[in-house]
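To whoever is on call:

I kicked off a structure prediction for a single chain this morning and the downstream step that reads the tokens threw a length-mismatch warning. I double-checked the sequence; it's 380 residues and nothing unusual in it as far as I can see. Pasting both halves so you can look.
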Amino acid sequence: MTTNYKDHLFHPLEISICGHSGSGKSTLIEKLIKKFSPSFNIGYIKHDSHKFEMDKKGKDTFRAKAAGATNMAISSPNSNAILSNNQNNKFIFRQNFVDSDIVFIEGYKKSLCHKILMWTDSDDDKTLLKQYLDDGKQNLLAIIGESEYAPVDSIRYFNRDNIDQIYTFIRDFWDKEISARPLYGLILSGGRSIRMGEDKSAISYHGNTQTTYLYNILAKFTQETYVSCRAEQKNNSHLSPYPNIDDRFVGFGPTGGILSAFQKHPNAAWLVVACDMPFISSEAIFDLIKRRNPYKLATCFLNEEKNWPEPLCAIYEPKAALKLGQFLAMGKPCPRKVLMNSNIQSLRAVDQKILGNVNTMDEFKIARSQIQAMGMNDEN
């Protein structure tokens, strides 16, 4: 089972390179970043056990800190930096690294995150390794050293010059973490359908209610599928047969439904589809899943007409919950804005028509006629 996000230090896909000073941590991380950077957006976090100072005496930020400021920032057209006395850096870093695909951590050898130990055969190394082996919760994945011989047989060992092997080992580890991540389906049915005049999730385009139609599609591809609805809706006859998730963020539209799903299953990725998208098909969902990039915050189709991401036919990875919550707290409860300001995988749909949504009875009549002319059958 994949590790719970809350059990990580900063990011769901992170590895700490540990060891004592002079063991080669920085050199190894530099080589690994060069290997990973052509394909990944990489975060790097350095833990300094000494009391380092990034500021310089006499500089404006130094003077502001001396005067009593606890949080400072400096910004230029090309770079930004935040200086903080806040010791709750785990939460700050989680926010700042949510758009990283992967994160390398240098240090934090006493943490419980997944780690690789740099080995020099010193007495300090032997003491640290014994501590790790005695504590089964230390998540020690591998040891890297100069010798061709492993210090213990129970832990995978690499020579530090075998960068290709180390790269493959780390990549395989992260791929396994992702493969253990369940994919659940979510049908957004909690809207009030004011313009339509009746519940859009109960309307029939394909010989059955839209809820049933979409549920039958998503159930083919996901381990579990849920209907997102308001608490007063769940006993409605067209919704009650299906597992549901009550919207706990009432009044915040689709973002509220997605966040409610993440509250129920925070370690799952969520395949989200809105009930007012009648042209969605099994082929479209299969295509979305096949081209999914689980290292990104989300995978979605691109609305080519408006050149923006379609947030209501998309796969949201677990770390998306943090970004959705941030935007909601800023008064921006629009999932499209989240995707437009995030590191996502955007796909061109084979047919742009699948992204069409229906909000009025006139649009419904047109869409139903088009669906009948296209011969789209019920997905039972």
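Update from on-call: the warning came from a stale cache, not from the record. Cleared it. Sanity check on the structure: Residues 23 and 290 are 42 Å apart (CA to CA).
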